Amino acid sequence: DQQVKQNSPSLSVQEGRISILNCDYTNSMFDYFLWYKKYPAEGPTFLISISSIKDKNEDGRFTVFLNKSAKHLSLHIVPSQPGDSAVYFCAASTSGYGNKLVFGAGTILRVKS
Amino acid sequence: KAGVTQTPRYLIKTRGQQVTLSCSPISGHRSVSWYQQTPGQGLQFLFEYFSETQRNKGNFPGRFSGRQFSNSRSEMNVSTLELGDSALYLCASSLNQLGTGYGYTFGSGTRLTVV
Q1: Residues 25..64 of B with a Cβ closer than 8 Å to A: which?
Q2: Across B45-57, average pLDDT
């Protein structure tokens, strides 16, 4: 049972435009959501997170939106840059249950210059 | 400050053998978690150790085991290797004790190939 789903295996965007990566979850116990970026042969790098008590969190070019009723979150990157090309993973956790993250399968983002 | 260090970076083993992977967390981090990444599967949680105690365990067979030492360094062991165990094994450490996952820092991983 896949509790965190990233239904788009890949996304291609023109440099300077907005990239929107989506993530759906099924477990109502999740109360913390994170996005990671991964380059080949490297470990994932933390990008941005959001608590379930919020519906939006911004950090520079990155904004995460959370819609709890729809069990959906999205990552917006504006403007997109070629260096953003990587695999993006959505992850979720339940506070109080230790540091166990449940990851989606990832979305490959390609930013074309 | 030094990041999360995983050794070795690459490993080739034969089916049926056993393997031990090592992870040194960021200084001061007491939580260490292990994940398996295979193509198209994302990262699958193996287990988490906090202060030498296994705090969480994923849905992997008993061939996968781990431990944490008093200096927070952690090892994971896979016995009786199968071809399907070929994967990138990632370790993450965290200072956080609340279990939110915030601030996880990953190592670069160990690429295990079973032939």
Answers
A1: 31, 33, 35, 40-45, 48, 50, 55-56, 58
A2: 91
